[in-house]
Amino acid sequence: MLTTSLSQLFKDRPLPSTEHDVLSSQEHLINRAIAMHLLREGQFSVASEFLNEMAQKKAMKKQQEGDIEAIDNAASLLDLDEVPPGEVRQQFHTMYHILHELKENNNLLPAIQWSRENKEALEARGSNLEFELCRLQFVWLFYGGQHQQGPSPGGRQAALEYGRREFHTFLPRYLREVQQLMGAMAFCPNLRDSPYNHIFNNPSAWSDVAHSFTREFCSLLGLSADSPLYVAATAGAIALPTLLKLQTIMKAKRTEWTTENELPVSYLDWHA
Fold it and tell me: What cellular-component terms does GO give this entry (predicted)?
């Protein structure tokens, strides 16, 4: 996707180049970033193949240097300089299993179970995840266990029983939200004209809760919700046209930029 975007951006022009390859000395960090990106995207088989190839490449390099002990170390996928720990990989397997159930089967129960197993850590972050999941489960039951196919008597009863059983644990923090959910029962079947329509007919509800789950899951692993490799590549692609223009001007004027650790133009300011 990124290659296609860059090709469209520069079309017949070559991509900007530099005489200084600042990343050549950090190959192990780049490999680790790529491996982590693949794992975060759920590409587990691709990540495994990539890690194997990197291990073989490192082993061959050490063999040429005559370092027999390093060959054994390089052949292992548990080289922590480049490869995420096995526990992290297993965590991402868990995350994608839960996301698959949520997105493909409208099954919120694994996500709810995970949020309860990690309740203390999530509450310490001030997270709303567990309530968001249970609220969507209530709405899903309200529609008869289907994706917004219209409320049914059986669905309303199931939602009511679910609310009575589960929502007391969210009081008083979510009192207003719980009152809205339970009060919506009085507006059936004319829910679309009620003050609660935005809760029960939200087309982005499932994608929103999936994003919230991903963000909270990654945060408990000490990771950002978005892949750092994706963010860095995107920021670089955005900056390329400006830097390419500068490079063209400098070449025409036969000048060079010599200041280190500073861009020659003001581009983006990032704040923590």
Answer: cytoplasm; GID complex; nucleus
Q: Give CA–CA dist 163/216, Å, rounded.
A: 24
**Which residue matches tokens 């950002």?**
224
Tally of domains in the chain = 2
Q: Which two tokens stand for residue 149?
A: 């196919």
Residues 130 and 34 in one domain: no
Q: What is each CA distance from 234 to 47, 146, 226, 229, 237, in whole angstroms?
A: 21, 37, 12, 8, 5
Residues 247, 251, 255, CA angle at the centre, nearest 5°?
Answer: 100
Cα angle 237, 221, 216 (rounded to 5 degrees) comes to: 80
The residue segments making up the domain with residue 209 are 87-220
pTM greater than 0.85 (yes/no):
no
At 123, the amino acid letter reads: E
Say how many CA atoms lie within 13 Å of 42 toward its Cβ: 8
Residue 37 falls within a domain, yes or no?
yes
Q: Which amino acid is at 14?
A: P
